[in-house]
Each structure stands twice: as structure tokens, then as C-alpha cells.
Design a protein that fits this description.
The chain is α/β, with parallel strands linked by helices. The chain is built from 14 helices and 17 strands. The longest helix has 19 residues. GO terms for molecular function: glucose-6-phosphate dehydrogenase activity. Pathway: Carbohydrate degradation; pentose phosphate pathway; D-ribulose 5-phosphate from D-glucose 6-phosphate (oxidative stage): step 1/3. Belongs to the glucose-6-phosphate dehydrogenase family.
Length: 466
């Protein structure tokens, strides 16, 4: 249900790429679903002053380009709630934002909830946080930080200290939209509500876990940001580590924010620090350096494959294989449990047994198992049972960003990362930032990355691209 208290949603960086691609379409979807309060305002901020009318034009264009039909239907009503003011930085007086907030509070009336969403480059997180504190705008509000939350263990600790100097932990929402995917949340249900799967969720039955997020997209629209970040920082230490924690965690006492957060924290603390020499392969697709904004001598990785070890009793000796990259052979978001099987049965080789959860869209569950081939002879084959989660009735899934924003509106922190979990993730990732960082290897556009990444998945091989 929609919250009833009036709301001011302050979108910092409202004219930026992230706001246009993700946040504005998500708000339009929530408006269409009736999940926003009756009295609310969307207050955009940015470096370049524009009128509320121009902001509405930008909003419509963003949803038309990046939203779906449902989001487009929410735009007419959404534009009735918009306002715009200048940007907030640490050195500015921030006079315009407090005054605009006071005006909107008076217009909305009642006890107004204020949410600050920082859809800005990570380098702006700390300055905006300090500016909000300096302007006296932090009491009782909620703040949403995008990823990456820091770019190293040291910068993570500095940013988190700045955030906690301005806000209590309960006010802070660190977003990771992979945790907001309904298909990711289905990992909980698949495992904890079905003994068929829960009983095999351990090293006795699982030979490998593969978490694979290849992309066919390039980086031309955000080359400057991407070249300063790369695939490992953009995806590995954020999304893929968090999904690995969802798969590897011990059963929580309850499926609520506190217990799920604790379970993720505890298992990430058991992530063994990466060994760059043995367990990591970096790549850069052919032609990346030809993109405008990318230096001719760039060593930025556009591909990363890593073998992660989770040192718990449940997963000891089971490799978690994490892979992502740009301009690859296909786009997918997939978790695969490669099950242990005998080499042969009745003199015939046994085919692969797998449990596959697609995280793309509404999600899909596939179970691949060994079966007898139809016919007079006892010959073995492989069959796959599919369940598209969109076919489960009744229900209508929310896009990840819309779902997470709805959680922020009601104050539900279940699907948001915690400081302890992020610190452990940075500790595990830290060796890849050191002197032993491997040199990115070239790979062809449309391929599955450097061939040397195949050794990480031996003896079973990568399921995607097989």
C-alpha cells in the first residue's frame, strides 16, 4: 500500500544519466501503480538551473526513452508533482534548497517525509552529505546512496564515516538494484521453502556456483565514468558479491531486514580475499580505446572473471565463479548451481545436472537433470524443466528500482547493503587493487571474454556460452 504521509523526494543529479535511465522511470511506475502518497513533490536539483517546465520535458523524454508502457502512463500525473532548484555542494550556501523545502512543506502540510536520492557520481557523495549537514537538512530524513559506495576499503571507510557524521544508520539506504530484483529475492524462497532445493544447497551436492552477468552493451554513453571505474569496481565488488552472499548465506532466523542483513554480513566476512594471480582474469574488448573520452593507453578492464572461495563449513572447497563484461556474446543475469553427478550410469555418461535461476526480468527457474531417453534401450539423456516466474499467478512484478524506491518510501531496509557487509566485501576485493592486479587481456566483440578465463571454470566449464 502507498504511504499516507506527505512526501518530498529530492533527486540530486536529476538531469544525469542515472536519473534518466533508472530513477525517473521507476517513479513513473510507482505513480501509475498508486504507490506514491496523495500529497507529494519531486524536487530535482542540478548544476544548471532550469524551470519546472523544462524539468517536466526532461522527465517525459527520459521515460519515453528508458521506461516501459506502464511508466509512460504514469507521466501525466507525475508531472503534476515536480519542482526544480539549484544544486547543493559543500562550498555553496545551499540557501535555495532549504527555502524550496520549506515552501513545499507548507504547500503539502502535515508531517512530511523527506528523501534525498543521490543520483550523482560517487565523488559527489561526501560533498553533498556534508552540505546537507551544514544546511541543517539531515534530521529525520532518509538518504539513498548509489553504488559504488567507495572505490576502495579506505575510501569506503571515509565515506561511511562522513555519512554517519550526518545521519543515523537507520536513515541510510545503500542501494544495490540486484538485491531489489524479485528473481534475486526468489533465491530465498527457492531455498528455504523447498526442501528439494534446500537439501542440496551445500558442498556435498554442489560442485560449482556460477554467477554470470554478460552484457552486449558498450560504454559509449558513459565512457568517462566507466574508464575511471571498470568492470571489477562497477560490478564485481557490488552486484556480484551481493548475489554471491544471497546464495551462500546461512538460513536467517527470519526473512526481515535485521536478520537478512546479518546473514549477508556473516557470510561476506568469510569471503577469502581474491588471489589476482590465480583466481582473476581481466579483459578489455577490442576497440574500447577508440571510444571518445577513453585514453589511447587505457588499461581499464571491461571484463572480469573471478573465482571466489567462501570459507564456511557449507561451502568449503566449492568455487563461486563470477563473470561480467561488456560487448560479450549475449546478455544474461544468471545464477547456476552445477550439481555433482557420477561420471556414468549403466555404462552411459551422465549429462549435466543444474539448478539455474535467471535474474533477468521477472526471472526464470530451470532444472536440468538426467533422464532416460524414450525408446526400447536404456540410454541416458538430459531434460530441462522451465518455470517463468512471470507466469506465476496472481501477481505483477515491480522493476528493481521501483521496488527499492517503494521500500525507501516505507522505510524497509531489508534489501539494502550494510556497512559491515560492505567492509568485508572491500577486504575480499582489496588484493585486486594492489600491485598484483593482472593486465587486462584483449577479447573480441561478441565473444565470451579472454580464453584464459575458461581455466577458472574447469572442469565443468562456463554454463553460459557453452
Amino acid at each position: 500500500m502507498a504511504p499516507t504521509e506527505p512526501l518530498i523526494f529530492v533527486l540530486h543529479g536529476a538531469r544525469g544519466d542515472l536519473a534518466k535511465r533508472m530513477v525517473l522511470p521507476a517513479l513513473a511506475t510507482l505513480q501509475r501503480r498508486g504507490l506514491l502518497p496523495p500529497r507529494w513533490a519531486l524536487l530535482g536539483t542540478g548544476r544548471t538551473p532550469i524551470s519546472s517546465h523544462d524539468f517536466d520535458v526532461l522527465l517525459r523524454a527520459a521515460v519515453e526513452e528508458f521506461g516501459d508502457d506502464e511508466a509512460a502512463e504514469g507521466v501525466p500525473e507525475l508531472t503534476q508533482h515536480t519542482a526544480y532548484c539549484g544544486d547543493v555542494t559543500e562550498d555553496d550556501s545551499a540557501d535555495e534548497l532549504p527555502g524550496e523545502l520549506d515552501r513545499l512543506r507548507e504547500a503539502l502540510g502535515g508531517d512530511v517525509t523527506v528523501i534525498h536520492y543521490l543520483a550523482v557520481p560517487p565523488s559527489s557523495f561526501a560533498p553533498i552529505t556534508r552540505a546537507l549537514k551544514k544546511a541543517g537538512l539531515t534530521d529525520g530524513v532518509r538518504v539513498v546512496y548509489e553504488k559504488p559506495y567507495g572505490t576502495s576499503l579506505e575510501t569506503f571507510r571515509e565515506l561511511d564515516a562522513t555519512a554517519h557524521d550526518a545521519f543515523d544508520e537507520e536513515q541510510v539506504f545503500r542501494i544495490d538494484h540486484f538485491l531489489g530484483k524479485e528473481a534475486t529475492q526468489n533465491l530465498h524462497v527457492l531455498r528455504f521453502a523447498n526442501e528439494l532445493f534446500g537439501g542440496i544447497w551445500n558442498r556435498q551436492h554442489v560442485a560449482q556456483v556460477q554467477i554470470d552477468v554478460p552484457e552486449t552493451l558498450d560504454v559509449a554513453q558513459r565512457a568517462e565514468f566507466y574508464d575511471a571505474t571498470g568492470a571489477a569496481l562497477d560490478m564485481l565488488v557490488t552486484h556480484l558479491f551481493q548475489v554471491a552472499a544471497e546464495v551462500a548465506m546461512e538460513p536467517p532466523r527470519k526473512l526481515d531486514a535485521a536478520n537478512l542483513g546479518t546473514a549477508r554480513e556473516e557470510v561476506i566476512a568469510h569471503f577469502r580475499p581474491l588471489d589476482p594471480a590465480k583466481d582473476v582474469v581481466l579483459g578489455q574488448y577490442d576497440g574500447y580505446r577508440d571510444i571518445d573520452g577513453v585514453p589511447d593507453d587505457s588499461t581499464t578492464d571491461t571484463f572480469v572473471a573471478a573465482r571466489l572461495w567462501v570459507d564456511t563449513e557449507r561451502w568449503k572447497g566449492v568455487p563461486f565463479l563470477l563473470r561480467t563484461g561488456k560487448r560479450m556474446g549475449a546478455s544474461a543475469q544468471q545464477v547456476t548451481l552445477v550439481l555433482r553427478t557420477p561420471d556414468e550410469l549403466f555404462g552411459s555418461p551422465v549429462g549435466p545436472n543444474r539448478v539455474i535461476v535467471s535474474l533477468a526480468g521477472s526471472g526464470e527457474l530451470k532444472v536440468t537433470t538426467t533422464v532416460k531417453k524414450p525408446g526400447a534401450f536404456l540410454e541416458l539423456g538430459t531434460g530441462t524443466a522451465d518455470l517463468a516466474l512471470a507466469d506465476v499467478e496472481p501477481g505483477e512484478s515491480l522493476p528493481p528500482y521501483a521496488g527499492l524506491l517503494e521500500d525507501v518510501l516505507v522505510g524497509d531496509r531489508t534489501l539494502f547493503t550494510t556497512p559491515a557487509g560492505l567492509e568485508s566485501a572491500w577486504i575480499a576485493f582489496a588484493p585486486l587493487l594492489g600491485a598484483d592486479r593482472p593486465t587486462p587481456e584483449p577479447y573480441a566483440v561478441g565473444s565470451w571474454g579472454p580464453e584464459s578465463a575458461d581455466r577458472l571454470a574447469e572442469p565443468h566449464g562456463w554454463v553460459l556460452g557453452d
